[in-house]
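Give me the 3D structure for Transcriptional regulator, PadR family.
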Amino acid sequence: MSIFIYIILYILTAITWRMNMNALGYALLSMLMRKPCSGYELTQLLEVFWQAKHSQVYPLLTKLEQDGLVTFVHVQQTGKPDKKIYSITDKGKALLTQWVSKPSAPPVIRDEFLVRAYAIGLTDANTAKRLFHERIFSFEEKVAFRKVEIERMQKEHGSELEQITCRHFGRYLLFQRKLKLEEEEIAWCHWVLGLLDNAKMKVNEKK
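Predicted structure for Transcriptional regulator, PadR family (207 residues):
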């Protein structure tokens, strides 16, 4: 494709999608920049950003395909229905290139557990400790998964992984970030458990 046609696609795409594209759409395009994927694979890979449902991903993939931002091929499966493998198009790359350098909106974090933690004083210490132990267990599983994936990426790509030109560089950055956040969450939960233990000891001393 000539540079002139690429520029035209870039401009037209930016005008058409500036107001209509959402963050999930850009996330899907970003994933497809790394490699072609099925809708199921994309839903799993999106975990590094946030949890997305199949009911969100598949309709959006259809829209992206209709607008020429992605394309797909049918792949036959033995004993299963054919699956679609999606790839990003030049038009999709142009849109993503235009979007990626823009300032980001303030992050929106919705974590139900944080609401429970805020209102934790309504329950007793044992219940509170159970909730935080469950949180630790959940995040320990996440940390274990994250470390395995990071190690796999490092083995497969070596020092190239830390170069911005590597197509896995962005995923590596996000996995490292998620790992640090998950480890920090575990440390915070242990800190809270320490407070709960100290509070229980003080109550017993008064008795």
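The radius of gyration is 22 Å. Let me know if you want a second pass.
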